[in-house]
# Entry
Amino acid sequence: MKVILLSDVKKVGKKGEIVEVSDGYGRNFLLNKKLAVLATKKSMEILDEQNLQHDLEEKQKEADAFVSAGSSGAILVGGQVIVGRIKGIERPPLAPLIPTEKGVSLLIDCGANVDARASHLVQFAKMGSIYMENVLGIKNPRVAIVNIGAEEEKGNALVKETFPLLKECTDINFVGSIEAREIPHGEADVIVCEAFVGNVILKLYE
# Structure
C-alpha cells in the first residue's frame, strides 16, 4: 500500500514523503499510530493543490491564517504533513465558534477524531481555553465536557475517564458537564467532546 508519512519514520522515510509499504505494516503500525495516512487520490491531490501552498506559507511565516472551502480532511492532512503539530499535541481537532445567547462558544472537536482518548480531550480543553482567552479575550474561560447529565457519574466510558482528569487541571476553569440543550444558552465558553458527538452538535446547529 502507498501512504503519506505524517512523521519521520526510521528506515521508511521522511515526513511528507509518499512511500510504499506492506499492507500489514501500513495498517497495523503506520496508520494505527497516526504516523501516516493512506495515499488516496484525495490525499495525494492536496500535495499539488492551493491548500498545500497555504500551509507552506504559514510554516514560512508568510501568512498568519488562510481560508479554505474544504475539504476538511485535506486541510488536516496538509496541516500535519507541512506545518506539523504543536510539540506534545497528540491529535489536531476541528474547533469552530458556534453562536450562543451570550456570544460564541468554541466546539472542540467537531470532526477530526471520532475515536479520541481521554488524553486527547484534555489537550483539546487546554487548547480551547488558551484560544478563547488569547484570541477572543475571554478571561478565565469556562470549560465543560458534553454529557447526558450534569452529575459527575453520568456519561459513557470516555466521558467518565476524562472528567476527573479535567478536574485535576489547574490551568483551566473546568465547570463540569454540559448537556447539549444548554449549549445555545452559553453556559460554557469551551465545549469539549470527541468528534462524533461534536459533529452531531455542529450539524444540528446548521
About this structure: The longest strand covers residues 103-108. The CA atoms of residues 146 and 178 lie 5 Å apart. The beta strands are 2-5, 18-20, 36-38, 97-100, 103-108, 142-146, 173-178, 190-192.
